[in-house]
Design a protein that fits this description.
By secondary structure, this protein is of the alpha+beta class. The chain has one domain. About 45% of the residues lie in helices and about 20% in strands. Strands 1-3-2 form a three-stranded antiparallel sheet, covered by helices on one side. A hairpin with a 2-residue loop joins strand 2 and strand 3.
Length: about 90
Amino acid sequence: MDVMGSCRTEQAIHAMVVPHAAELDAMTGLAAKTDPIRGGVRLTVTTPDPEDAKAVARVRGPGFIGLLTLGAHHHPHHLAMARGEAMPGHGH
C-alpha cells in the first residue's frame, strides 16, 4: 500500500506507519516492511504461506486501517495518549 500526503500529513505518515509496520512484523504469521516513497511510505505486508487462504485473507481483508489495529500495543498506547503521556518507542 502506498500511503502518501504532503507537509504535516507526510510527516505523520512516517511517524505512524513505520512503527506500526514493526508491530505487524513482530506478529506470528505476518511480515511487514516499509520503504520510503515520494510523499510517504510504501507498506508491504505478507504472509509466509501464500497458499494459506486464511492467512492471505488476514492480510488482505482488513485494509490499511484494519492492519494498523492489529497487535496488542493499542490499548496502552491510547491510554497513554488520554493521559497526555508518551509511550516508549512510539513516535506518534
